[in-house]
């Protein structure tokens, strides 16, 4: 009866996650509640997953990545990665997945995903690629890379230890490479080719998407004593990751070629995302054009916030420029940049470059209905716009200048925590917590920012761990496994290997990868005994299949990207299904080729 209850809850969980009629975190907690109410688990067992070492470590990793972001480390690495975007979206994703897979082959895939998550987001923004097109490939790349070497994922280590306990030889450090490396390459190529077709172009909820993807125009100048005077323009564009679309000197437009040497009297016409514009504002040696700013007193206000505001229909600003409307004096706000509809944006660029209607500046161009201004000012001044008559406030953003001076310290703390946890110097949770507290204590990130993590990740992983415990304790996992073992009498060893791998993949959804593999391993031993063949190809096949759970977002690496990528449960099914099928077909033939059923072990198996 208990087995039936657990299997029923598993089916319910998959239905709730697939439909997403209620938030996924609510569905997760519902599963935990049902396990406790049906007495499949005691309350202590049901909630034990939330105090699990891995869950705490993942939470601390997410908090530490906030520190990497606030110190500018993420922006710098993401800028290097976004370089490949100039060769196209698929080349960018290929470069990112290749880099992640290399790291994941020797570092835990969950750790690798958490480390590269903010980097991938930053690079995607710079490359103008929706996060939803990048983050799922990131998670998949980390899982694929974990199949190459023994230390790539904890599942490999757990299975190696279990095999030794059952009298088999443990998995060698590079034993999986002859199959794992081709699988990783094949998987990356499949994602690169199918991703653009099957992944959604989704950036989040209304308002958020516009804020993230909006391109702004602004003007910048080099003040007296600027370190950029006498240097090439390429040093600015390379260092800031923004686009200088044109130069004006003495009223004459100039081509914005990287080799142009700046004299200091030029006006730079800049187009970029919010972060690009704000980085210019806080960088020494280059500043937003003075007639777009207020005095130092207002600028230095501690209560200052950043908002974006649209010009509504009937606004007195419509048809008038910032100068004509005496915008700064009247509203007490700083206009940092302007966004317009694509057609208007192109015309505005031509106006500013003097190619259409003469040379103009942003502050002298008449505003139109639908224009969006990036504004800075006190909260009191922003509150005065509440009536929406002149400007309609769309959203605000609590911006903090990057703490570049703390970048090296943040990297050391982050890598130190990963090393200490991965090498077993201290438990993973302790290492993560120490690293997070170290970043807060040293000023790499403030506590409020550090705790801005996606709590849905923590709730989902903790809940799924409870379901995995229920599968083990109730015997539901072994029940399903025994049904597969019965198929040994109806087909050859290749069919049984296929069924064992499929069962492992299916069980890895409600259970952890390690638990699913450990449940299926005894079934594999029994099946090999009945067939009279070597058990090693079955054990290796189960180990590799445990890392092929691409169909659902319940694997920890996928859970990490679920919230930031604004994915739905079915998004993983669309791309994960063909990827899983192709890899299983490949493994069914590749595994017996390296680890034959007749027990003739290759030399690579030696430790």
Automatic annotation (TrEMBL):
The RCK C-terminal domain, residue ranges: 204-286, 294-391
Membrane spanning stretches: 55-78, 90-117, 137-158, 179-199, 408-441, 453-471, 491-508, 515-533, 539-563, 575-595
Localisation per UniProt entry: Membrane
GO molecular function annotations of the record: monoatomic cation transmembrane transporter activity
Membrane topology field: Multi-pass membrane protein
Domain of life (superkingdom): Bacteria
InterPro entries per the UniProt record, alphabetical: Cit_transptr-like_dom, DASS-Related_Transporters, RCK_C, RCK_C_sf
GO terms under biological process: potassium ion transport
Keywords from the UniProt entry: Membrane, Repeat, Transmembrane, Transmembrane helix, Transport
PROSITE patterns to which the protein is assigned, alphabetical: RCK_C (PS51202)
GO CC, any one term: plasma membrane
Protein name: Citrate transporter
């Amino acid at each position: 009866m208990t087995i039936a209850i657990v299997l029923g809850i598993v089916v319910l969980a998959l239905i709730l996650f697939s439909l997403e009629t209620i938030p996924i975190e609510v569905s997760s907690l519902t599963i935990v509640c049902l396990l406790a109410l049906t007495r499949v688990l005691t309350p202590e067992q049901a909630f034990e997953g939330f105090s699990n070492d891995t869950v705490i470590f993942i939470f601390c990793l997410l908090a530490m990545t906030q520190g990497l972001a606030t110190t500018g480390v993420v922006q710098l690495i993401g800028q290097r990665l976004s370089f490949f975007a100039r060769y196209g979206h698929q080349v960018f994703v290929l470069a990112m997945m290749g880099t992640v897979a290399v790291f994941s082959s020797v570092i835990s895939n969950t750790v690798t995903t958490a480390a590269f998550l903010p980097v991938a987001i930053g690079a995607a923004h710079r490359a103008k690629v929706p996060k939803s097109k990048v983050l799922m490939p990131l998670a998949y790349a980390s899982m694929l890379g974990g199949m190459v070497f023994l230390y790539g994922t904890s599942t490999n280590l757990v299975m190696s230890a279990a095999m030794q306990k059952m009298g088999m030889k443990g998995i060698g450090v590079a034993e999986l490479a002859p199959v794992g490396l081709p699988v990783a390459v094949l998987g990356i190529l499949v994602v690169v080719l199918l991703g653009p077709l099957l992944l959604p172009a989704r950036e989040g909820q209304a308002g958020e998407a516009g804020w993230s993807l909006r391109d702004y125009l602004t003007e910048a100048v080099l003040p007296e004593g600027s370190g950029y005077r006498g240097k090439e323009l390429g040093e600015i564009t390379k260092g800031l990751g923004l686009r200088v679309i044109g130069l004006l000197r003495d009223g004459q437009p100039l081509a914005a070629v990287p080799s142009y040497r700046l004299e200091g009297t030029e006006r730079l016409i800049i187009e970029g995302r919010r972060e690009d514009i704000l980085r210019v504002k806080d960088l020494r040696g280059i500043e937003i054009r003075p007639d777009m700013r207020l005095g130092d007193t207002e600028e230095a206000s501690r209560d200052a916030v950043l908002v974006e505001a649209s010009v509504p229909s009937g606004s007195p600003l419509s048809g008038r420029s910032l100068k004509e409307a005496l915008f700064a004096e009247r509203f007490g706000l700083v206009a940092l940049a302007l966004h317009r509809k694509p057609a208007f944006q192109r015309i505005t660029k031509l106006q500013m470059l003097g190619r259409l209607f003469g040379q103009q500046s942003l502050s002298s161009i008449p505003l139109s209905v639908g224009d969006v201004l990036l504004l800075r000012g006190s909260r009191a001044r922003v509150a005065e716009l509440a009536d929406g008559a002149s400007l309609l406030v769309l959203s605000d953003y609590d911006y903090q200048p990057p703490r570049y001076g703390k970048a090296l310290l943040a990297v050391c703390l982050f890598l130190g925590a990963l090393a200490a946890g991965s090498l077993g110097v201290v438990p993973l949770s302790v290492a993560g917590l120490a690293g997070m507290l170290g970043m807060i204590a040293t000023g790499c990130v403030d506590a409020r920012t550090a705790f801005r993590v996606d709590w849905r990740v923590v709730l989902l992983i903790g809940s799924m761990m409870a379901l995995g415990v229920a599968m083990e304790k109730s015997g539901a996992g072994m029940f399903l496994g025994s049904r597969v073992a019965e198929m040994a009498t109806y087909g050859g060893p290749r069919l049984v290997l296929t069924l064992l791998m499929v069962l492992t993949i299916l069980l890895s959804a409600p259970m952890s990868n390690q638990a699913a593999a450990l449940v299926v391993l005894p079934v594999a031993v029994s099946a090999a005994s009945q067939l009279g063949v070597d058990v090693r190809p079955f054990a290796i096949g189960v180990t590799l299949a445990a890392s092929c759970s691409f169909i659902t977002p319940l694997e920890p690496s996928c859970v990490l990207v679920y919230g930031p990528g604004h994915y739905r449960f079915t998004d993983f099914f669309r791309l994960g299904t063909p990827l899983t099928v192709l890899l299983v077909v490949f493994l069914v033939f590749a595994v017996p080729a390296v680890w034959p059923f007749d027990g003739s072990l290759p030399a690579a198996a030696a430790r």
